Amino acid sequence: MIPIDGQAMLTAADTRKAEARAIAAGVSADEMMARAGAAVGEQVRRLAAGAEVLVLCGPGNNGGDGYVAAAALRRAGLPVRVATFAPATTPQARAARERWGEEVEALAEALPAPILVDAIFGIGLSRALDEGVSGPLRRLMTAARLTIAVDVPSGVSTDDGVCLSDLPPANLTLAMGAVKPAHLLQPAAAQCGTVRFVDIGLEAPSRVRAAAAPVIEPPAASAHKYSRGMVAVVAGAMPGAGALAASAAARAGAGYVLLLGSATDRLPHAIVRRRFTAEALEDHRIGAVVIGPGLGRDERAEERLVGSLASGRPLVIDGDALRLMDDRRCAGAAILTPHAGEFDAMFGRGSGSKIDRTVAAAEGTGAVVVHKGPDTVIAAPDGRVIVHSGSSSWLSTAGTGDVLAGVIGARLAAGLEPMEAAVQGVWLHAEAARRAGAAFIADDLVDHLTLTA
Ligand SMILES: NC(=O)C1=CN([C@@H]2O[C@H](COP(=O)(O)OP(=O)(O)OC[C@H]3O[C@@H](n4cnc5c(N)ncnc54)[C@H](OP(=O)(O)O)[C@@H]3O)[C@@H](O)[C@H]2O)[C@@H](O)CC1
Ligand SMILES: Nc1ncnc2c1ncn2[C@@H]1O[C@H](COP(=O)(O)OP(=O)(O)O)[C@@H](O)[C@H]1O
Ligand SMILES: [K+]
C-alpha cells in the first residue's frame, strides 16, 4: 500500500478515460479487474490476520472488485462471506460473481463480521443510497472492527467530495489506480479514513496532485540575509495579525523581515519595524510583500493595498486585502489566500467542485489561489493543482491564516515560483499544526514551524 502523497488525482471521467487507454493498449477490462480485486484481496488478507471477512458487493465493477477479492481471500484460506442487494450488471462483474461461485447472502439479512469490505459503489455512484442499502451498510459498519472501502466509500460523490448518504467513516480506503477528489475533499475525505493508493498499472497523467512533503534545501554556503529572502509585511488596524505573519515569515526561513505599519510590543527583536510608506516597498531587495492580515478595510488600508499592488513586488494577498481588491486581475506574481468566505465573496459560490472553482479563480485572476479550509486547494493560472487535506482540525482558530500568509511570503521571498511557494507554505503550516498538538493558538503555531523534516 502506497501513501497518496504526490499521487496524480483523476475524476471519475478521467479514470474511465485512463481505463479506456489501458484497454486500447492491450490490457483487457477483465485483467484490470483481476489486478484490482487481487490487490484488494491481498491488503484485506494482511489486515484481517485470520479474522472473518464479509465482502459487500454492488452491481457494478466496484462490486466486481469485491467478488474477485472474496475469491482471493477464500483461496488464501480465510473465512469469507459475500452479500449483495442486486445482481451484477457489467460483463466483468458478472464473470467475477460467477468465479466466486459460492453463496451470496442478501445484504438486508447479512450477519456482521469483524472485517468488512465495502465494494458496493465506487466511482459509478450516481445518487444517494436507498435506505434498503444504507441501513444494512450502517448496521454492518457499526458492528465491524475494521471497514475497508474499495476505491471510495459507498455514498460519497467521487468528483466533489459531497457525502450523499449518512454513514459511519471507513477505517481504510484503497484508491484503485488513481487518487480521486473524494479522497482529499471534505467532507468525503473524512469518510475515507486512511487512504492508500493501489497501483493497478493505470497510466494517470494529471495536472492535479495530492500534496507531498517539500524538499527544502538549506541556504547556500555563500548565503547572506538578503539572498535568503526579504519579506515585507504590511500591517494595519489589527497589529497582532501583522505580527503573526511577520514572525511566521521569520521562522519559515526568511533572511530579513520588515514589518511596515503599526507593530505590537511582543515581536521578536529580529523583525525590523518601520512606518508604512509606499517608498518603503521600493527596496529592490524585497522578495515578497504580505498584505491583508489585520489590514482593516478603511481608507488607510486601501492606500496600503494600492501602494503594495503598485510596488511590482511578488505579493501574498490575504484577509482584508482580498475584500478590498477592485481589480481581480493580478499583473505580477501574486498568491491569493482566501478562506471559504473570502473566496465566495470574491468569486461567487459558483458550481463544480472546490477544485474546479479554484482553478477558475486562478485562471481568472492570473494569480496562484490558495483556497483554504479543512481541505486546501492550491491552483496556478496554468492549470496545475495541489490538494492538501488531513491537516489538524485544531487549525480552526483565529490567526492561523495570518501565520500561513507569512510562511508563504518567506517561501516566495526565498525565490520559489509562486505555485511552489504556496504549496510549500501550506505543507509547512500543516506540519507545524501537527507538531503543536491540541488546542494551540496561532502564536504557538509560529513556534512549531520548522523547515527540517
Ligand atoms: N475504471 C477503472 O479504471 C477501474 C475501475 N475499477 C472499479 O470499478 C469501479 C467503477 O465501476 P462502475 O463504473 O461499474 O461503477 P460502480 O461504482 O460499481 O457503480 C455503478 C453501478 O451502481 C449503480 N448505482 C449507482 N448509484 C446507485 C445508487 N445510489 N443506488 C443503486 N444503484 C446505484 C449503477 O446503476 P445506475 O446508476 O445506472 O442506476 C451501476 O449499476 C471503480 O470504483 C473501481 O472499484 C477497477 O475494477 C479497475 C479499474
Ligand atoms: N477544520 C480545519 N481543519 C484543518 N485546517 C483548518 C480547519 N479550519 C481552518 N483550517 C486552516 O486554518 C487556517 C485558517 O485561516 P483563516 O480562516 O484565514 O484564519 P484567520 O483569518 O483567523 O487567520 C487556514 O490555513 C485553514 O486551511
Ligand atoms: K466502495
UniProtKB/TrEMBL annotation:
It catalyses: (6S)-NADPHX + ADP = AMP + phosphate + NADPH + H(+); (6S)-NADHX + ADP = AMP + phosphate + NADH + H(+); (6R)-NADHX = (6S)-NADHX; (6R)-NADPHX = (6S)-NADPHX. It comes from Sphingomonas olei. The gene is nnrD. This is Bifunctional NAD(P)H-hydrate repair enzyme. HAMAP family: NADHX_dehydratase, NADHX_epimerase. Bifunctional enzyme that catalyzes the epimerization of the S- and R-forms of NAD(P)HX and the dehydration of the S-form of NAD(P)HX at the expense of ADP, which is converted to AMP. This allows the repair of both epimers of NAD(P)HX, a damaged form of NAD(P)H that is a result of enzymatic or heat-dependent hydration. Keywords: ATP-binding, Isomerase, Lyase, Metal-binding, Multifunctional enzyme, NAD, NADP, Nucleotide-binding, Potassium. (6S)-NADPHX binds at residues 61-65, 122-128, 151, 241, 294, 339, 402. Residues 15-208 form the YjeF N-terminal domain. NCBIfam families: yjeF_cterm, yjeF_nterm. K(+) binds at residues 62, 118, 154.
